[in-house]
Amino acid sequence: MENKKEITGIYNTTFNEKKATPITTQSDLEMIENAIIEEVVMYVKGYHNVAKNKGMGAKHIKLHLEKDSKGYIHLEELLDLGKSIREYTRIFKEAYIDIEGTKQAKIYEWENNQGIRFRAVVDKMRGSQPPLSPSYEVKREGLPKTPLSPFDNVIITFYSDRNLNERMQFKNPSVSDYYKNHSNQTHLIKSSKKPELKPEDERITKQKRR
Asked: Potential cystine with 107: which of 76, 88, 96, 144 (Cβ 3.0-4.6 Å)?
């Protein structure tokens, strides 16, 4: 199983008491070959505001695990999120920057071998700690004036185009062109078997961790 520690971290952040877990966006080999500093995005507990139907992080993304939800994702697809992001980066090198006024977010998109499309959104947050409750005022950064810590690269949402009224249209033109040219070839992300998590992997101690 690829990066079992990362998969367990995603599981425990989604279902147990873990507050956050890091996900690397490039493989060790690619980082060595490209002589770059490892980039990390954080998968955090987050929140979901029912009244506004908005949120971020695991509590928000977890709603997409419900079979009838718009943007439905399988549990194994969520657990393999890091693997999918690294495979995206291997092919497209960097995330697509989606700019709305003074706001910007990193977009990772792909299609599996069943033709299902996925999108993960990463944004920069003010403050050195990830938002963990609805009372935390979430503000997206514009162009940052100072270097940001890894906790500022937070996974806002992750979903598919299942149960949507229309098929997902890729925001990144390079991704769209890639699948047009590879429509009859192996897709970027292959379906994988559901990871088998042992009871000790699913349990996280409630002791305070660094």
From this structure: 96
Whole-number pLDDT of residue 75? 95
Tell me which H or E stretch contains 48: strand 47-49
Inside any domain, residue 210: no
Phi, psi of 14 (to 5 degrees): -75, -40
Is residue 78 in a domain? yes
**Residue 43 falls within a domain, yes or no?**
yes
Distance CA 70, CA 48 (A): 15
Range of the domain at 17: 4-137+147-199
* Domain count of the fold of the chain: 1
Phi, psi of 40 (to 5 degrees): -125, 135
Phi and psi of 108, rounded to 5°?
-115, 125
Alpha helix positions (H), 28-71: 28-34, 57-61
